[in-house]
Amino acid sequence: MRDVVILGSTGSIGTQALEVISQNPDKFRVVGLSAGENNLGLLIEQARKFDVPVVGTSGDGIALKEALPKCTVIDGPNAGREVAALQADVVLNAITGSIGLGPTLSALEVGNKVALANKESLVAGGDLVMAHGRDRIIPVDSEHSALFQAMHAGRVEDVSKVILTASGGPFRERKDLSKVSVKDALAHPTWSMGPVVTINSATLVNKGLEIIEAHYLFDIPYSKIDAVIHPQSVVHSMVEFVDGSTIAQASPPNMKGPIAYALSYPDRTAGSMPAIDWSKAHSWEFQPIDEARFPSVALARRSGALGGSFTAIFNAANEVAVDAFLSERISFTDIVDTIERTMAKLNSGAPEKLRDLADVTAIENDARRVATELLTQK
Q1: Residue 348 has what pLDDT?
Q2: What pLDDT is stored for residue 225 in this prediction?
């Protein structure tokens, strides 16, 4: 029986994780949940269903205390960090955005293993996270879970390249992106995700973030990390070894597999997702990314080459721009343009390395301020 804490329990990854746990009550026990203040009704339902002893919310906890008198309720801006520090076998960080960095560090600082679905933890504070070592971080993103699994086929020193796959989002064949609507961008062809991640997939910013994440997770230089378009989203990533062999991990596009693998690693959970049906014909396509239409991938590589503070700038500026696009205040193509202009504006003053969480917060605040100013000017 493994004790599990889930951060961001009311989001897409969090709810699917609880479905996996519900299907395997003999394997997992939920000892802590946390979520934002926007869906407390669902959080209350989850806490009751799984008889959770500790529940946290970043907002006011009055409603939780009234509805869950037997629970210990933690509220306020540090609730995620406090819940992450509960004693557990694994902490699933499914928080969206760079606010997930603090809870990731809190979990690692007390010795917990982290099933990491919050890619911004590594994008914004990769050096800080990796200072705790790689052996207690199990990736949940389907691409990085695939790399993690494929890496077991050889030694890290024998890896010549890793290849992340991207669905290409809804616009992989659309030439003119200047008139894209919010509705268009949210219509992902293969995955069901939250709005921010879906927009990131449409701009391929998500793939840029994943390249940065892969660099930190596997200690691989950016020159050895590629990305290709794979519309079917069945092959999730590949590892190429020095002898010319390429090992791929393939499964239908379903996040329950990577979630279950991260929660139960090194074991596997039977029936966590459907397998590929080999009684049917399959055609899998792979094609290079058109970086002229999707400049976000090259921009992410550039931010990584410039140093840790620039990946934090990249991420924070993107969060501001995506929020503005979802609010229909800017165009789709303004998103990546805003990231690039923010990086250029902060080029001379940004530190090469971030020393602690306060440094990350400071540079992100600068990036958000500059990005907001640039958007206001537009």
Answers
A1: 78
A2: 96
Asked whether the beta carbons of 333 and 366 are under 8 A apart, the reply is: no
CATH topology of domain 307-378: Rna Polymerase Sigma Factor; Chain: A (1.10.1740)
What residue ranges do the domains of the chain occupy? Answer: 2-139, 140-291, 307-378
pLDDT number for residue 191 = 67
Taking domain 2-139, whether its CATH number is 3.40.50.720 is answered by yes
User: Quick one: CA dihedral 334, 335, 339, 340, positive or negative?
Assistant: negative
Question: pLDDT tens digit string along 284-332?
Answer: 999 999 988 889 999 999 999 888 699 999 999 999 999 999 999 999 9
Q: Is the pLDDT of residue 59 over 70?
A: yes
Residue 203 CA to residue 336 CA, distance in Å, equals 8
For 201-255, the pLDDT digits (tens) are 889 999 999 999 999 999 999 999 999 999 999 999 999 999 999 999 999 999 9
Q: Which residues of 147-176 are buried (b: 16+ CB within 10 A; e: fewer)?
A: bbbbbeeeeeeebeebbbbbbbbbbbeeee
Contacts made by residues 106-111, CB under 8 angstroms, sequence distance 24+: 106/80, 106/81, 106/82, 107/5, 108/132, 108/136, 108/137, 109/85, 110/85, 111/136
pLDDT above 90 coverage of the chain, percent: 81
Helices and strands, counts by H and E, the chain: 15, 12
Q: How would you classify the pairing of strands 137-139 and 54-57?
A: unpaired
Please state whether the predicted TM-score (pTM) of the whole model is above 0.70. yes
CB atoms within 10 A of CB 278: 7
CA 19 to chain centre: 19
Please choose, from the candidates 19, 11, 20, 183, the residue with its C-alpha nearest in 3D space to the C-alpha of residue 97: 11
Q: Do domains 2-139 and 307-378 have the same CATH topology?
A: no
C-alpha neighbours within 13 Å on the C-beta side of residue 136: 21
How high is the pLDDT of residue 307?
Answer: 81
Query: Which of 113, 123, 152, 94 shows the shortest CA–CA distance to 217?
Result: 123
Give the up-direction half-sphere exposure of residue 59: CA atoms within 13 A in the CB hemisphere: 11
